[in-house]
Structure formats: C-alpha cells, structure tokens
Design a protein that fits this description.
CATH architecture of the largest domain: Up-down Bundle
Largest sheet: 7 strands, mixed
Helix content: 10-25%
CATH topology of the largest domain: Rhopdopsin 7-helix transmembrane proteins
CATH class of the largest domain: Mainly Alpha
GO cellular component, one term: plasma membrane
Region (Disordered): 280-304
Mean pLDDT: 85
Distance between the termini: 111 Å
Subcellular location: Cell membrane
Biased composition (Low complexity): 280-295
Disulfide bonds: 462-472, 487-496
Length: 735
Amino acid sequence: SLYVSEYFSQSAQKLSFYSWYGNAKLFHFRVPEDTVLLRWLLQASRGKGPECTNMEITVHFRYGAPPVINPLGTDFPANATVRPSYSISITLSSAVQNTTFVNITTPAAGDWFIAAHLPEAAGRIEVKGFSTPCPYMFQADMFVLRLTDMPVLEPGVATPQTVVSPAKALHVKVFVPKHTAVMRLELRNCVTSEQKACAVRVVLGSITLPQSFQRIITCVGKVNCSLALDSPPWEKWLQIMVESLGAANASVLVEMLASFRACRPGSTSSFLNFSSLNQNQTGPRPGSAGAAGSPTLSVGETSRNASNQRSFCLQNQPVVREDLDVVSVRYRLLNGPSMPVNSLSPTLLLLNLNTGMDSGGSLVVNLLLNKTSVSLANATVVACVSAASPVLSLNATHNCSTAFFQGYPLRVSTSSPEAMLIVLYPQTDDWFLSLQLICLKGQGECNAAEAKVTVFAYLTPCFNDCGPYGQCSLLRRHGYLYAGCSCKAGWGGWSCTDVTKAQSVSAQNLATLLLTLSNLMFLPAIAVAVYRYYVVEASVYTYTMFFSTFYHACDQPGVAVMCIMNYDTLQYCDFLGSVVSIWVTILCMSRVKKILKYVLFMLGTLLIAMSLQLDRRGVWNMMGPCLFALVIMIAAWVYHGVKRRHCYPPSWKRWVFYLLPGITLAFIAISVYAFMETNENYYYTHSIWHVLVASSVAFLLPPRDKHKKPWAWSQKLTCRYQICQNDREELYAVT
C-alpha cells in the first residue's frame, strides 16, 4: 500500500479568559478522504514577563461542527440537546512552551474543529495602558497519513484480502448507496497462512469526536463471521479496518463480502407540487389554532394510498431549503406545513445542512399535532432527528439510533401536542426527521389511523436571538462563520437563559439611576465656574455632564435603557468631554494669560479629538493631556513664584481648604477608576468616579480675578452711563 503524508497549519492565536463563546479561539481543518491516521500538534506558549503565571489551557475537539462547551457550568435553553465535548488540558507552569500530540486512527473525513481558551475571566475592568496582560498563544497543526490505493469492496462480490501482519492492518472501504436499510458484512474462509482458523478484529466506521460509534467484530477461531448494520450512512464511503490478532509472522487470508438491503421509498411529491414554490406558505405558528392541513382525499383514494404504503418502507415528503441570511435557513414542505403520519411506514423529511456553512448556528425542529386528526386516544407520534441516515424502524421503546449516530427523539400525543428540539451547532451533513404513528396497546388498531402533524424546521444563528438580555454576535475564523450569545445584566448560559446571577429589574433601575444622576455633581462645579467668570470652563462641564448622563443611560445592559442618539456617538462625546474637562481645569489653574489660555483650550481639544478617534480607550489619551497641562501649570506657578519671590499660590488657606482636598479627591478618583472597577461593581464604583471628579473640579478651580466684582445683574442690565475699567492700562473712561 502507498501512504502519503500531508501537513496543514494555521496561524497562532492569542488566547483569552473565558466569559462567553467569543473568547474561545477556533481552528477549522478539513481531513481528506482515506485518512488512516490523524495527528494534532498543539503548541502553547506564554510571555516571559513577571505578570505571566502558571496557566491551564483547555482544548476542545469536535467533528463536523464547532464544539459545544460550557466552562462556566451555566444552563442551556430548554429542549436543547447537549452532549459533552471531548477536551484535554494543557498546563503552562515553569516551561514557557508546551507541545502536545493527539493521535486519532481512522478519523472521519470532513470538517474538524478545535476550540481553545483560558480559565474563567476574573471580571476586572482593566484600563488599557495601566497594566500589561500576559500573552498566551496557541497554535494547532494537523498531520494526516492517507492511503492512496485503498481497496474497494463491490456490493455482492466476495473479494479476497490479505492481512500481512499484526503490525500492519488492512484498510478497505465500501460505498453505501442511498436508501440503504441494512448493510451486512461477512468474513468468509478466514484462515492464516498456516491453514488455521484466523483471529482478527474488524472495525467498521470512522472515529468522530466527542462520541464515536464504531462497530467492532472479533472473530477468533471461526472461519466465517458477519455483522449487520441498521441505517448505515447514506451516500458515503464506509471505512473497514481488519487487524490480525495472531502470531507476528503469520498472515491472514480472508474473503470479504458486503451486501445491502434497500428500502423502497414512496413519495407524495409530483410536478404539481412545484407550483407552490412561488406561494407564501407561512402557515400558523406553533401553538396557534386552526393549523392548515392537506387537501381532503376521497374514501377510494384513501384506501388506495393505504395499500400502496404497505409496499414502501418509508414515505418521502418534499422539502425546500430556503436560505434567508448567513447561518439562517428555513425549510418548507411543498404539500403544506401539515403532513400525514401513519403507522405503516415512517414519514421522512430531509433537512439539508451539508453546505459547510450551516454548522455555526442552531437547528430548531418544532412539531405540533392536530388533535382532531387522531381518532385514537392512546396513539402517539414518535419522531427522531438524525444525521447521515434516517431511523427507519420507530416504536415506543426505540432508542432513536442509526448505525453510527445517536439521534434525538421527539414525541407528541393528544395529551402533549407540541414538542421542540434544539440542536446546537449541528454537524455538517444531511439531517433526517422520521415520524411514525405508534399505538401503545398494539399496532393493529393503528393500521387505519392517521395523524396530521405540522412541522416547523429552521436554522438560526442564535436561538430566540439570545433573548432580551443577550446579543447575538456573528463570529469569523478565516472564511468560516459561526454565532454566539454575549449576555448582559448578570444573565448567562448558551442563549442567555440562566438566571443564577441575573440582576432584577429594580437592580437595573438602581444602576441606571446611580450612573446617570451621579453626573449631577457637576452642577456645583458649573456654579462655581460661572460665579468666578470661567464661562468657557462651565460650558465644557455642562457638555460633559449632559453626554455622560445620556451615554450611561444608553450603555445599560438590561431593560432600563434610553438612547437619544447613536451609541457610538454618545460614547465618543462622553470620552471627549471627560478628557477636555481635565484639560481646561488644569490650564485654568495655571493662571496664564487669557489669549494663551484660549489658544491652548482650542488646540488641545482638537488634538484630544484626534487621539480619541485613533484609540478611544487608550490610557494615554487621558494621561497625555493631563501630564502636558500639569507641566504648563507647574511652569506657570514657578514663574509666578520667582517673579513675586513668594510661594505660589501664596495663601495657605488656598492650599489647605481647596488645593489639597481637590488633589486628594482627584487621586482617589483615578485609583477607583484604574484599579477597583469590575463588571459586578461597575455601577457604583463608576458612580463614585463621577462624584469624586466633579467634586475635585469645584475645589481646584482658582478664585476670580481681584479686579472683577461678583455678578451684579442690576448693573449688567442697566442702560445708563457706566464707568468701564481697562484691564490693561487700569484707566477709567466715561462712555
């Protein structure tokens, strides 16, 4: 046999601490056909700085779709099917780099996904630039060993094969045609090279993760062995591996025969059905009354259909796949949303999800039984959703499984007429929905009965659009798109349905009130600025108070939200007002000449607006203007002190009662903002930041000029002659 090795690699990704599915880094590979060995090379590394500590990286594997993971132990939505993912842990301790290998023999061909993430996020809000997070990198490479001349078994033809030695297994494959009900594999005349009864181990099927359903035959001391598979995967190559369990130097000779029993399908479709493609078949939603059924048949047609159904093992219902958007598909039945289900043979619907771009959403199947269509009180409609091949034998105790797939069962009856199934990240394949009418007391009384079942099936990016407390985000890894829910207001879970840590509506209202009303602490600062003739500064504080109030009213995660304009605009104006307020306050304290002060006001505001557009959350957007303004203020104070030969500001009362309290409040505010804020305490720590900053401004604003009198509105509004003061020449003139 000729083996070919291939190597596939993807660029490394920086890992994140886990809080939602978007934090997991996804790798997407495609395993070629006839692969007999798959080896993953997983490389994890970390930085060398002191902030880097020991870390455990969790890596999840899945075939056909992204892994469904739950590192936080939260709840999934009701009616969702969840099977634990296959995962391993990689520990980065003293070593800067860790290399791990994962081997898989006879892997299934197709899409394979790897998701990696760090432990749960701490929830602390870090200001960009104050701390340097440790970089943790992860890279996945794939090696495959592929057999180029794998022997093919022809159906119904006994093919002689040889297992050379126990160290080298025999690999063959057979193609399973469509509508196969049973596949039978037989080993005939199995003897060793010494003409003794053979000892072999036969493995049918490929490995899929997280669950693998390979079928194994151990043939020891027998010349003939066989195995039957119910509902093998349709229109796929099935790998068969034969291993010798005998002596090391003895080969095994065996004849392999694969045979199939086909299922004759009956179909209710005709050319007339396609005329309904251009019609809007919305139909009633689940739970609504008056579900529309199929046209009524005459008694003769009904009896003739019943006799025809006995010769078929299944009834096909034509389904149209309608693509709506990215990872958004609706399935429409050509004969109407309601279809007949009987006990003679299962009714089958094909849900096509094999485009390669459908596995990043959620498949939703909803069944609604028309109770008036079932004449038997104890009759039940049993359904099964499966991939690759349908379940062709449904009964009350059936476990809803095919040869290599464990399906998802559903059941509707007159006492429970509605059932829903949610398949999270369905694997890329043809999916089938099988339905059949079952009578608990015996199938004899069900032969003439028929039930009408309305089927709603669709693929959606996020189930229920993540609810009122979540946001459905479309994620991308290279050309592959998938969706995930980002929850807010303490809600959690896959679809934001976990209420364990959810905030109540009263708590949400309190958070909104604290974050918005705390901005009213700028009113004292505005009043002080206006009283001391700092009108420009007062205007900046008013601007900051207004946009900070409405930005936080729009930024709330829950239901207490009010947005007067675009969210991004409100955020930008809030950040701009905050930095410009600090800029003008420090320049005002420097007591430079008015013309220079206003030039610096304008120039600094333009530069701050530019820097915020480049990086809105960078710490130097705030620290840069602050430090530059402090340099100007210190230089101006030194100049005034040298000129007057006295400490500036000269009054000790100014230092004790204004400057020191204002500086203390400002430092406390910066400490709270930079080091104490977390996702849980944000609403009150950030409110404290508002109060402290606004209070510090009222203390730090310098007194008005001595030659300026307080506001006297009676003098300002007079129309008589006034004595005006010239600030420059200190002369008086009558006008």
